[in-house]
């Protein structure tokens, strides 16, 4: 009997603590400014990554600071998540918006709503310095590394169709896995966003872009020197029932472009 | 066997031998409550499945998509099956030696086997896979690592190293449960240590260890899901791929469930067959 009483009182105490925790949680956030939770696949250098000391930084992070904190007067916090399930995670209510260098695509637009574009990106190919891959057709019959669920993976699927299936895709959880696989001779190329690839090329003496004209030149854009497979635009993703907030964020994005804050952040990360 | 116990107890309805008062609830009541709870549980599960798969329009399984993605899931299933078979055979093979090392009289063999088991049991399989797939090739200069398509070999190596430790412990337990007299009797008949081990102790130890080894092999099948991290196109990778492209979780979920059970259920049956065969007087089963 003694043991049972002990168990009962123990359970009671635990329940009490849990309840207290819940009450404390709601009480705490009541009076302060609203905190916007941002879902993001971290690390994705240079858009969102942690410095050696563990401080979160990157282009998206500074844009979030400019938009949410400085323009709209809201608190914001980033929440790590995996990219391949990020849209469902947003729709399941795990965070308010997505800022994760996310390309606006028609498929994604059916599930969520996007802000106005805040960045233009290209899908590009990175290979080892001594690789004999010099144009897109050289990739036929090889294996390429991509990140799961990204437009890079989509571009690679497109290439695979173009080569009648004669291309092996190795899909990693995070882009670093694909970069590692390139260095470790597991893939001959990585297909990914130009800026992220550029950061990798800049930090690593053993890799280079595949050069040439591509989609960007075809569309008459101010084309970078390397081969571009697609032209894409990044947007902030919102749940479809969040239109008012999306409008406010669009205004704030326009405001930071007008004020020059956007240019300043852009120059910090993409000097070229 | 089990039926006759409960039948006898129910019929008598007497209090336990040491109690001076009757039990608070009779055996029959407990039995009825048990049946009630399990039926209610099964009904709830079935209702939930019906809701998910048929009634709720947001999570309905899409037959068109299902047909489209079956071939790639079948390919992934074959790959998982292959990795499991290779990992299973080699982990049991090496595990036997790990187990023998753990019961070795030589303190060197014994302590090396112990360190092996402690390391591979004490660190997560995911960590070991990362070490093998990302760590080892990084010891070569960029682009110079000789093995292309290292992911599947790395997977088999990782699963083998990890599960050999668990199988080794099962074998050690099996050997420990064979009475010392068996070894002593074999030795006194003039058999060497190796002969006694091979002819007398191990066959009995194997029977004792079989349940634990079978259990471990089922876990090995499920551990292949971790290989998604090293870009092996196995079932979870396929799920994530389809899900991120179509935003439809339930259609691939159904296939993943069927695919894993398609390995683990026959495996469970095989283990039970082996157990029955090696049981005392098991020849007639």
Overview of this structure, please?
The complex is a heterodimer of chains A (272) and B (285). Chain A is α/β, with parallel strands linked by helices and 272 residues long. Chain A folds into 2 domains: 35-117 and 235-269, 3-Layer(aba) Sandwich (D-Maltodextrin-Binding Protein, domain 2), CATH 3.40.190.10; 120-233, 3-Layer(aba) Sandwich (D-Maltodextrin-Binding Protein, domain 2). Helix content of chain A is 42%, strand content 21%. Chain A has 10 helices and 13 strands. Chain A has helices at 2-30, 59-71, 86-91, 106-111, 151-162, 175-183, 194-203, 215-218, 243-259, 261-269, and strands at residues 35-40, 49-50, 56-57, 75-80, 97-98, 113-114, 119-128, 143-147, 168-172, 189-193, 207-209, 228-234, 237-238. In chain A, the strands form 3 sheets. In chain A, strands 7, 8, 9, 10, 11 and 12 form a 6-stranded mixed sheet that branches. With 285 residues, chain B is mainly alpha-helical. Chain B folds into 2 domains: 2-55, no CATH class; 65-284, MetI-like fold (Orthogonal Bundle). In chain B, helix 7 runs antiparallel to helix 8 (193-223). Classes of the chains: A alpha/beta (272), B mainly alpha (285).
What would you say about this model in short?
The complex is a heterodimer of chains A (about 270) and B (about 280). With about 270 residues, chain A is an alpha/beta fold. Chain A has ten helices and 13 strands.
Key descriptive features of the protein:
heterodimer; A: 272 residues; alpha/beta; D-Maltodextrin-Binding Protein, domain 2; 2 domains; six-stranded mixed β-sheet; five-stranded mixed β-sheet; B: 285 residues; mainly alpha; MetI-like fold; 10 helices; 0% strand; flat; disordered N terminus
């Amino acid at each position: 009997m003694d043991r049972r009483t002990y168990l009962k009182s123990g359970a009671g105490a635990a329940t009490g603590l849990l309840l207290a925790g819940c009450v404390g949680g709601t009480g705490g956030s009541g009076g302060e400014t609203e905190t916007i939770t941002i879902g993001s696949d971290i690390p994705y250098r240079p858009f969102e990554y942690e410095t050696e000391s563990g401080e979160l930084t990157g282009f998206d992070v500074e844009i979030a600071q400019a938009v949410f904190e400085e323009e709209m007067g809201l608190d914001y916090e980033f929440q790590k998540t995996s990219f391949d399930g990020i849209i469902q995670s947003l729709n399941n209510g795990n965070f308010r918006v997505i800022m994760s260098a996310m390309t606006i695509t028609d498929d994604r637009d059916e599930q969520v709503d996007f802000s106005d574009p805040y960045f233009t990106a290209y899908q590009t190919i990175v290979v080892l310095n001594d690789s004999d891959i010099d144009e897109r057709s050289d990739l036929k019959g090889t294996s390429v590394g991509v990140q799961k669920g990204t437009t890079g993976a989509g571009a690679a699927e497109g290439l695979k169709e173009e080569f009648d299936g004669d291309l092996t895709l190795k899909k990693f959880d995070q882009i670093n896995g694909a970069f590692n696989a390139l260095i470790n001779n597991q893939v001959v190329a990585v297909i990914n966003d130009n800026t992220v690839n550029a950061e990798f090329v800049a930090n690593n003496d053993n890799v280079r872009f595949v050069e040439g004209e591509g989609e960007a030149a075809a569309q008459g854009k101010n084309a970078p020197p390397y081969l571009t497979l697609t032209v894409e635009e990044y947007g902030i993703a919102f749940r479809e029932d969040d239109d008012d907030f999306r409008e406010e964020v669009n205004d704030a994005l326009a405001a930071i472009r007008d004020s020059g804050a956007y240019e300043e952040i852009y120059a910090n990360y993409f000097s070229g | 066997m089990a039926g006759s116990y409960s039948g006898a107890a129910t019929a008598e309805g007497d209090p336990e031998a040491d109690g001076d008062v009757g039990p608070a609830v009779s055996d029959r009541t407990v039995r009825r409550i048990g049946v009630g709870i399990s039926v209610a549980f099964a009904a709830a599960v079935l209702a939930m499945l019906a809701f998910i798969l048929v009634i709720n329009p947001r999570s309905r399984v899409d037959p068109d998509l299902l047909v489209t993605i079956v071939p790639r899931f079948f390919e992934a299933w074959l790959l998982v099956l292959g990795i499991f078979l290779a990992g299973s055979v080699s982990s049991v093979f090496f595990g036997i030696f790990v187990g023998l090392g753990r019961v070795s009289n030589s303190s060197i063999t014994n302590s090396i086997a112990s360190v092996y088991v402690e390391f591979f049991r004490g660190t997560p399989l995911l960590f070991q896979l990362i070490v093998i797939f990302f760590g080892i090739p990084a010891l070569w200069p960029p682009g110079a690592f000789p093995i292309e398509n290292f992911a599947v070999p790395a997977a088999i190596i990782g699963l083998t190293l990890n599960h050999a430790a668990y199988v080794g412990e099962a074998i050690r337990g099996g050997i420990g449960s064979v009475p010392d007299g068996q070894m002593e009797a074999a030795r006194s008949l003039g058999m060497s240590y190796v002969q006694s081990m091979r002819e007398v102790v191990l066959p009995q130890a194997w029977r004792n260890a079989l349940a634990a080894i079978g259990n471990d092999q089922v876990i090995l099948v499920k551990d292949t899901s971790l290989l998604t991290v090293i870009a092996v196109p196995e079932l979870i990778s396929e799920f994530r791929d389809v899900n991120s492209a179509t935003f439809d979780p339930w259609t691939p979920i159904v296939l993943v469930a069927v695919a894993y059970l398609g390995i683990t259920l026959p495996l469970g049956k095989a283990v039970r067959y082996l157990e029955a065969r090696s049981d005392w007087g098991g020849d007639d089963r």
